[in-house]
Give the backbone structure.
Amino acid sequence: TGCACTCDGTCRDGTGGRTGGLARTCTRPRAPAPQPAAPVRAEAPAARSLPPVASFSLPIDEMQQVAQSSGLEWVNSNVDKVAQVQAAIAAEPKPVHVPREPKPAVVLDDGPLVLVETRKDLRDMQLPFEAR
């Protein structure tokens, strides 16, 4: 019969690993034990900063000509006022982060349960806490 071993030293030839009631030693050379893989270091990507943004200058004269040729009028913002607003926005303090308060835990009543009759007419019944 052909050997169907698992290279653990015990031959499995279809008889449950036993031949004549005894385990047989495999005659095949054992495979080398697998080496544990070297730990892979996950390197954090370097914190890349965004490249500096070049200033953009809008060609206002060309835009005015395009607008006039279309029968429109070019309206532009006042540069001084825009600079003032941008400076005011930059000067404002950042808002303080206020953490959210967690809701208080609900306290369950551990007292005895109260049985409430829902089908019985209780209008005429004298209850113990009622004093007449």
